[in-house]
Amino acid sequence: MFSRKGKKENSSPSSLLFYKGDCYNKVMQMSRWMRTFKEGLKENRRGLRLIIAGVFFVTLFAFVHFREVRVEALEIETKASSYIVAQVDFSFPDEEATLILRQEALGDIGMIYQIDPKSIKKARGQVEDYFVRNKSWRGTNSATFEEIYTTIEKIGEQLAKIKITDERTVRKACESKYMCRGIIQVPIDQQNPSLSKEFWPIFLKEKLQEAPADSKDAINLVVNQYAAYGGWEIELDYEELRKFRNHIEALVEGKNTAVKAGSLIISEGDTVTDRHLRQLGEMKKQIRESRNLFSPNTLIGSAIIAFFLTVLIARYFRLYHKKIYYSSLSLSLYATIIILTLAIAKMIEYLLIENAQFLTEYLRFPILVPFAAILISILLNKQIALFSSFFLTIVIGLTLAVDQSRFLLINYVASLAAIFFSQSLNKRKEVFKVCVLLWVLSVPIIIGTNLITSSFLEMSTVFDLFVTLALVMFEAVLIAMLLPVFETTFNVMTDLRLMELMDPNNELIRRLCFEAPGTYQHSIMVGILAEAASLAIGANGLLCRVAALFHDIGKLFNPNYFTENQFADFNVHRLLSPTESAMVIISHVHEGVELAKKHKLPKIIIDMIQQHHGTTMVSYFYNKELEMRDGNADLVDKTLFTYPGPKPQTKEAAVLMICDTVEAASRSLEEINEKNVEELVHRLVSQKIKMDQFCDSDISFKELEIVKKVVVHTLYVSRHSRIKYSMKTSRAED
Prior knowledge:
Mean pLDDT: 82
Helix content: 55-70%
Number of domains: 3
Oligomer: single chain
């Protein structure tokens, strides 16, 4: 038998027959299962389209219905381009009025003084000296020396904490519950502040009221001695005054100024201030709170708009892209891209408005639509991307809280640039190049808009440029991450993926080159023919070229059983019966499918491998078997000589079948000229038509004629005769 690695093992022709027969049965079983599965999908595809449309409708409804309130965005320190009036009654925090109220509250506050610490220190020294030197106080007072000394220390500490101010300040401090104790009210000359004689009786009274009965004599004696000191000085207590003023300011509630609907907020040409921005913010908040999103009228209105947009999209695909309209996977892919774009737009809006209000001034040009334009252009086609860019620009521009004129202009221009530059994508990393180029084309719009409304040299222009660049780079990263996911999930074959498969270092291509060189050369030529023919009828030429490279990879399991790889006189089929040979030849399709799955080739390539022989017969071995049966067709089982199919399902698969057959047959032509090639191509294509090989593909007879002409021309040019040089000329050239 032959191992899965393509190496030959010791086996007899009979054992090979059993192995190939088993493979053939598996292929037939798989083919029947696939036909049943596809029929089931066809029966239910209307239901799938309705589900997709339903999800699309619900998303559009939510996007349109729960839209943010739109209020004109102004930039501080710029000139207002038009007047703005209040749409509803509202009130806003009036910082200017609040500041006036706070200033009025602080107007009743006088200065707060404290006793100079140096004066306290000197007075304490004098008092202590008096009690040490003068003994007369002991006869008139019951206090002991220890009590006197302790009292001197405490009174000194308390004097350091005392605050001195006027009557109005004391009253304000008590009313505001700032402090009532530790503050003494005495008249103070603001021009020449000094400690008034009225201070000491008040101070002594407070201390006597606070003290226990047994210490009052000591307090009375000590305070009188402190009062006798003549060098008292006071100074402003700046720290206490600051705390008190802050306390009073905090007690003043913020002033809210009422604005009536229809009142002028800002006039045209006025300089935008923080006060204007606060008014607009509060007006927007009031409009949002006053909306009733769940009223019948609002719900019905949003539903009508969403339904209209859904029908518009469906009608567009039904009229201009029927193939996508009847493909549930393609519709799901399109809906996913649109929904994802709307979700990103809503997320950015939420972050800007709810969490980072200051960013709204910097992200004035949100470039969002090119994200969808690039994905649709790569995964579907350019026409749908162009239509979708217009659709999304209008829908997002009219529902998001953005400057409509700026958004519509920059997003549509950037989307057109994205679609244009996406046509030349060959590698995934070039997505970043596309995003940079569309940003470069957006720069003149950003600068021009800023020149109209303000000055080019303002920092806002620089922020606009850097923020938009950061946004498109974020979208580029997102696109690069999502492309492989979408390709796998929705079974989409992009040009990027096809270019990757054409890499000469691809394992299967390298194996084909070294293990089956004849098949490799045949595949290269089939790819050239198929690409040219496909492009001529508007099919995917790159897909045909790549599919041609892999269509015969099943021959890697036993390459010597195929004519193009037999370089010696020995033909292995001489050891096999016609039936066994046919089994070997037919099995290369199933083997190719299994090998393609093992190497995770895209499904569309696997399908073309499976379909490139359709349900045709291996005529050579069938005729040999018929000769062995004396021409009695009843004794020959045709199914053993027939490929299991299915027939080509697409234009590309049909073109591949034609080019594969023609290229192989052309090698048997004794003389290559245009007439012989044309007759060969016409005969082979006619045979396929009679066998109904193209009935499941959407290729027309007109397109078949175009394919025939292109194949004839390309094949003849590639096989034309060269000039025979004489030996003398050859030696001279050598």
